[in-house]
Amino acid sequence: MDIHELEQRTQQALDEVQSAPDAAAVEALRVHYLGRNGLLPQWMGLLKEAADKRAMGQALNRFKTGVLAAVNARKDALAAEAKAAQAGAFDLSLPGRWTRRGRLHPITQLIDRTSAIFRRMGFTVADGPDIETEHYNFDALNTPADHAARDTQDTFYLPGGNLLRTQTSAVQARWMEAHKPPVRIVCPGRCYRRDTTDATHSANFHQIEGLYVDRRVSLADLKSDMDHFARELMGSGVKSRFRAHFFPFTEPSVEVDFSCHMCGGKGCRVCKGSGWIEIMGAGMVDPNVFAAAGYEPDTVTGYAFGMGLERLAMILFGIDDIRRLYENDARYLAQF
Ligand code: DAH
């Protein structure tokens, strides 16, 4: 037997010991290889005939210590297994296996959060098509034919006279046409504008729209509901304020600011020192909008509002560039 063959036998012996099914099998292997009448003593007898006695001696030694160590390790492992089996099939102290979990996109999270707040206030979540007609996106919303928003600069027009909705306000007109008052809906969804993409603009973005119509709904209802929404969304210390503005579909129209949730209104980087953050457009539904929907403008009043969800996500999550929301870098999005 030469050294090469001995090394093969060593490896074979180690494999056998490591896969021995029980303590008796391990002991049998130990006797077979290392016992008084085993293979090792026989091989030692051959040592004096070896060509390189020194190398052969060392190889025999490696065989002996290797097999002995494997025998002891296998015996210990089998003993530990037996003990664990006695204690019960499961080792409850073992740490669990970590599985990677998916997360909702920040915009999806905000759709869910804002919808949930309004649902608790009695609103129903409504839906409408992304591909709209000029009628629902503009005409029914009292938007004059020469209004700047209709410009091809702003609107994606489709062949056949349709367009991609520029605002979720289109759902107001559809819903009122199909439902009698009272109406209390919110509508989250995608909107499209021919904007050049930069840090704060995207040609495709999301809004959530709100509409509340009943007898004697007033601007005071809008104010108190916006205050409630502000607290629910941003924290108990946050309030709203109105600034006069213009929208074709509301009269009067306002822009709604929330006091800065970061600094409490003292002025910081997030609110650019003003203490207030612009959140949405709103107002009292224009009688012309009611008339276009077939409602009696003399018997009902209502408020409406609409806000951009990317903007809200950037404010709430501290995202500095709208494009981060659409690059689909899962490592980035998983933070929120
Ligand atoms: N549609 C408006 C926009 O895209 C937002 C808006 C303002 C919606 C006032 C409303 C509203 O319902 O009453 O800028």
Kindly describe this structure.
The protein has helices at residues 3-18, 23-34, 39-46, 53-87, 106-120, 134-137, 169-178, 219-234, 287-293, 309-317, 330-333, and strands at residues 124-125, 131-133, 162-164, 183-192, 204-214, 240-247, 250-259, 276-285, 301-308. With 336 residues, it is of the alpha+beta class. It folds into two domains: 3-88, no CATH class; 106-333, BirA Bifunctional Protein, domain 2, CATH 3.30.930. The strands form two sheets. A seven-stranded mixed beta sheet has the order 1-4-5-9-8-7-6, sandwiched between helices. A two-stranded antiparallel sheet has the order 2-3. It is rod-shaped, with a radius of gyration of 38 Å. 32% of the residues are buried. Bound molecules: 3,4-dihydroxyphenylalanine. Residues 167, 169, 209, 247, 249-250, 281-283, 304-306 line the site of 3,4-dihydroxyphenylalanine (DAH).
Question: Summary?
Answer:
By secondary structure, the chain is an alpha+beta fold. It contains eleven helices and nine strands.
